[in-house]
Design brief:
Layout: E1 2-4, E2 7-9, H1 15-30, H2 36-42, H3 70-84, E3 91-96, H4 106-113, E4 121-126, H5 139-148, H6 150-154, E5 160-163, H7 175-192, H8 203-246
Parallel strand pairs: 3-4, 4-5
Antiparallel strand pairs: 1-2
């Protein structure tokens, strides 16, 4: 990796690995003596990707809402609220399915408080294959019950509610292998549990499909009209400013 000021040429290396490496280095350097939790709130790491065929969009990975210590908890809550209240925010909220009350998630509560944000939110339910107890066979039926009533499960009506099976940290599987295993698991679950949704609303592939649709719909229905309105008003202002000169 060659460094050119604040920019890096990653060459042929895997992009995700380079990003993770740079972020960990930053946190380690800045976190000395102050604690890594505080660093996650006080500093913003910006990664700019430039290419001719990329959409102009900001993707933000918030640190989440931490419970302790109190000053960091308050700062993380305020940071989350600041971004959720922006008009063009689209939310992807990841919630652990191992807890009985999914809607007890504070992040879901914050989303539910913002008027209209639920319709711009995708809720991802993780660890759906890790039910605590002696009967893991209950997982498909339990999941179907939760997915059948998104509003009752999460506290509002999200634009999509999608379960995923997490790749184990130490199982040695590649991302491709993990996706294949996830697809096979959901296929078996659907065979025994008809109440589960269609394939395009299951697993990581379902998350990507829903995210693409959400972004496209928001650009077409909200962002583009806003930009056209701004351009029209600016054009009118310029015409008024130049009218005496042209006359």
């Amino acid at each position: 990796v060659e460094t050119h000021g604040p920019f890096y040429d990653i060459g042929q290396r895997n992009f995700a690995e380079v990003v993770a490496e740079r972020m960990q280095r930053f946190i380690s350097q800045r976190g000395q003596g102050s604690g890594n939790r505080q660093i996650a709130i006080d500093h913003r790491i910006e990664i700019e990707i430039r290419a001719a065929d990329l959409v102009d969009i900001d993707l933000l990975d918030l640190p989440g809402i931490v419970s302790m210590p109190q000053d960091v908890k308050a700062a993380s809550e305020q940071l989350t609220r600041d971004y959720l209240q922006k008009d063009n925010t689209l939310a992807l909220c990841v919630v652990d399915d191992k807890n009985d009350a999914v809607r007890s998630s504070q992040a879901l509560g914050e989303i539910g408080r913002v008027d209209g944000l639920g319709a711009r939110t995708i809720v991802v339910l993780t660890k759906v294959d890790m039910l605590q107890g002696p009967s893991p066979q209950q997982n498909p039926a339990r999941l179907a019950h939760r997915l059948a009533n998104p509003g009752g499960t999460v506290g509002f009506e999200p634009t999509a509610f999608i379960p995923v099976i997490n790749r184990g940290e130490h199982d040695g599987k590649s991302l491709t292998d993990a996706l294949d295993a996830e697809e096979a698991t959901f296929a078996e679950w659907k065979r025994t549990t008809p109440g589960l949704p269609a394939d395009d609303r299951l697993g990581l592939t379902g998350v990507l499909n829903a995210l693409n649709s959400l972004i496209e719909d928001h650009i077409r229905e909200n962002w583009l009209p806003q930009q056209l309105d701004k351009a029209t008003r600016r054009l009118q202002e310029v015409q008024k400013e130049t009218a005496p000169v042209l006359a």
